[in-house]
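Hello, quick one for you while I still have it in my head. A protein chain has come my way and I'm curious about its shape. Can you walk me through what the tokens say about the fold? No rush at all, and the record is pasted right below.
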Amino acid sequence: MPRRRSRWADQLDVNELFLKLPPAEARELFERVHAAAKVSQVTYDDDEGVTHVVPIMIRPRLMRLEQEAYYQRVCLDLNKAIERIASLYLHEPQISELLPFTEREDIWLRETLAQVGDQPQTVIARLDANADFADDEWDGQFHFFETNTVGVGGMYYAPKVDEILMEHVVPAIQRFAPGLVMRPPSDMRQLLLDQLAEHAKAIKRPRCNVAFIQETGLIGGPNEFPFLVEYLVSRGVTAVICDPRELDVRDGELVCGDLPIDVAYRGDELAMLVELEAQGGELRGLRHAFSNNQVVSSFAGELDHKSTFEILTTPELASRFTQRQQRIFKNHVLWTRRVRETRTTDPEGVEIDLVPWLRRHKDRLVLKPNRSFGGWGIVVGPHVDLAQWDDALASALSESSAETGGVVAQQYVDVRVKDFPTLAEDGSIGLEEFYVVCGFLATPRGIGVLGRASKKRIVNVGQKGGLTGLVVVP
């Protein structure tokens, strides 16, 4: 039976409200939103270091209260499953084989996880998913396609975009719908702060001095750490940005300069840290922080390869988790397999020879580099011909290095398409279709959402996509 829909659940209602605005006022709103994004530094640096303002879709997407609660519950259970994989990696070869690391990475990972033992670890995760809030069967059409658990992007972007739309656009459209009550979802910055404070308390630290760990001198991508530091400081928390080579240990205490550090939030993956050491970087302080469980995300967050979903969607391996988690895997996690010659099960649970099955079912599949990010290197089966698919499979079979983690095949689902008002060069306003995805960051205190939109099926800000705001309605 379809769930009851709010009067305002259909996203087109918001478009219609916006299009009621006089054209001159609507054009001014586009300009104000762009100007606010520039002032707020909702920006992205390309590989040449040139800064671009990230486009913001002019109207928000709507999420209902019952959806907000459901997504939070599901994401929290999936987070716990991801954290559990760390202990499985240590003790079950069948699990560790699916999560390839280089020899140096593996040594550091195993040594640290063994030292931390059963201490409470904290993983900050943004779970990227296909979500359609307006669909009658929204809970059945909700699928995760990857996790992001190190240096999570969007924790400044998401609340800032919501803030801009709430200030400039929502009041304008509420004139035509005074009964339409909207509020933003939980602020990801506050959720991060809450988790850092909880972790400091759990490991019995006397304060919550936070170091945001990020290698200096990197070019390209978003740079949200300064804004996260600014937010924490505004909430009375001492916070600094620290290059991993600047962390030190003094009298047994982790320090950045003269500041004692209780919790380190890292933006660098293990592979980058290993490379820094290989280049002669001194990471004694960071190793101390990992060994003393002072890092968020802990090394449990390092196990976020796309092949993690093979663990969750293989019945034999999924049995290591709770019954409720297994139901979530079945309903919401896309079937995923590392591309290799092996026997496994298909999405229906039937035993198969993997590679011949992949060749026969290209229209049901997507190929993705296992350990990369940014939307690069993805091959969408339904949108390439058979020769291109065979070439991509052959390349995937030959790509098995631990540095890349090889390639995964994942069940294909249609990326949701939504209409948004757009401003043409001639000043006219119309509706255009965009592909949309969401990234959910859930904690026991709330759930924040990073919305993204693009004219391309591979939706990523790094590939010139835009951002969508989100509001919660009754």
